[in-house]
Amino acid sequence: MTTCMKRFSRAIVIGASVAGCLSARVLARHFDEVLLLDQDTFSTDPAPRKTVPQEHHVHLLLNRGSAIIEALYPGFKDALLKAGAQEIDLSHGVKSYAGNAWKQRWPTGITAHYCSRTLLEFVLRQQATGVENVKIIDGVRVKGLLHDAGCINGVQVSIEGEARELEAMLVVDASGRSSRTCAWLKQFGYGDVLREEVANQLGYVSRIYRRNPARKPGWQVLLVTPDLPGRRNMGVISPIEGDRFMVTAGGWFGASPLPNEDDFMRFLAELPVADIYHEVIQLEPLGAFHQYKMPCSLRRRYDLMPNWPQGLLVVGDALCSINPIYSQGMSVSALQVEALSRVLPAFLRGDIWAQQVMRAQVEATEISWQQAKANDESLHPQAQRVGLKARLHARWLGVVNTAAYHNRDVAIATLNIANLVADKRTLYSLSVARASLFSAIARALR
Ligand SMILES: Cc1cc2nc3c(=O)[nH]c(=O)nc-3n(C[C@H](O)[C@H](O)[C@H](O)COP(=O)(O)OP(=O)(O)OC[C@H]3O[C@@H](n4cnc5c(N)ncnc54)[C@H](O)[C@@H]3O)c2cc1C
Questions:
Q1: What is the DSSP letter of 97?
Q2: Cα separation of 411 and 276, whole Å?
Q3: Cβ–Cβ under 8 Å, residues 407 and 439
């Protein structure tokens, strides 16, 4: 891919979190030096940090995301396991009450690595540090972009309170949802960036508890999700490294507890089944409650900008930040970076514009965005009545999802779709349709 390409001197990535570390691996193939700048300070062990408040809440890395990360950083999954993550079968290991029944559980071979986001990001950063021409510099806050005659030539930074300039041929903004790129572009005269917002009023409250490894409750993850759209509250007990559980409770459109003992326990007791409540009441808390609120999913359509400075790209949550309840964010970042990797050579040759790079990133994550959008819109308290096609699809989805509680093949098909490894059209494949209908008939006869 890169054989006929000349090498470039320096690229700067703003943010050394998930999207930043993934982008750095791709950039390192084309640039002599890749600087990953982060305003936070990193510890030599996986310690919580100030600027990623989401790390206090359950994070599940979907199969598609972990496959892309493994391809970028071979050995990533092993490193996670060595650092204390547990690999868990997403059917057999997860006791799940979904809607109005417990799901049957089977070994499916579809697994995920359960650990805290703090650990996941730490391991990822270690992998990035292992790339020869990638350098992570923490404690560096990017305060602006160096802009001259339609080109971004680097960044203005503040290091220990001192203002400095760092030059680069390419700047990649991976600074997360609160990215300042829109404001900077406006200041340079590029106008407003179109923001797509889908309301969800998500609220999460989470707390960490001690896990007794000797106790075998018959599940590794305990998940309760509601019968949508009538109820919007969910909860999960998820194992993390160091013999601990992370417990997250919350939901859509205001269905969320307050971050205190009484309200958290009340919320857990009022979930469709009280199993999480009965577990948590026996557990020893190991820390404070953490709350996270998000008004909407947000996509910034940089790809639609009529004018754009040379030498600037955007990736990760800074581009597209989706309701976290669908566990897609890190995988969406990975998909964006996979797209970046595909089109970067053409971009660096000058064959395509930055907007086309970001169009490729938007297209690579369109399915995730549309799935989350459709679901959140259907749950809105003032949801519009949808058309016949959407109603029929929702009906069929109900049939397939119910069959997935009882039929292993259908369960595998739905798991693959949720993990972004199979297309939604699989729901209409002959095998899934046949198994779903047989399952519905068998239940009706019983
Ligand atoms: C509550 C919650 C739960 C989630 N659960 C899941 C889940 O289950 N599964 C999943 O896949 N995803 C989940 N996500 C999404 C996931 O956290 C993100 O999508 C993913 O981490 C990608 O983020 P990012 O790397 O783009 O940005 P971030 O992780 O937000 O990192 C941005 C980085 O940029 C740095 N930075 C910011 N501004 C500057 C600056 N000016 N100068 C220098 N550095 C700067 C910050 O210090 C930070 O390190 C969840 C999100 C939330 C909010």
A1: E
A2: 23
A3: yes
pLDDT digits 0-9 by tens, 180-230:
999 999 999 999 999 999 999 999 999 999 999 999 999 999 999 998 888
Q: Dump the DSSP string for 166-229.
A: EE-SEEEE---TT--HHHHHHHTT--PPPEEEEEEEEEEEEEEEE--TT---S-SEEEEE--TT
Closest atom, ligand 1, to C-alpha of 61: 11
Atom of ligand 1 nearest to the CA of 140: 43
CB 56 within 8 A of CB 292: yes
CB of 436 sitting under 6 A from ligand 1? no
Cα 374 to averaged position of ligand 1 atoms, centre (Å):
23
Q: Please indicate whether residue 203, judged by its CB atom, sits closer than 6 Å to ligand 1.
A: no
> CA-CA-CA-CA torsion for 158, 164, 168, 173, nearest 10 degrees?
20
* Mutate which of 13, 18, 72 for ligand 1 pocket (most atoms within 8 A of beta carbon): 18
Say if residues 257 and 264 touch (Cβ distance below 8 Å): yes
Domains plus CATH for the chain? 8-87+116-196+297-371 (3.50.50.60), 96-113+199-295 (3.30.70.2450), 388-445 (no CATH)
Residue 16: its H or E element: none
pLDDT in tens, 105-140: 999 999 999 999 999 999 999 999 999 999 999 999
Q: Among 17, 182, 322, which is best to mutate for testing ligand 1, by the most ligand atoms less than 8 A from CB? A: 17
- Residue owning the nearest CA to atom 39 of ligand 1: 175
pTM above 0.85, yes or no: yes
Q: Is residue 42 within 6 Å of ligand 1 at its C-beta? A: no
- CA–CA gap between residue 338 and residue 66 (Å, rounded): 12
Query: What percent of the chain has a predicted confidence (pLDDT) above 70?
Result: 98
pLDDT of amino acid 194: 97
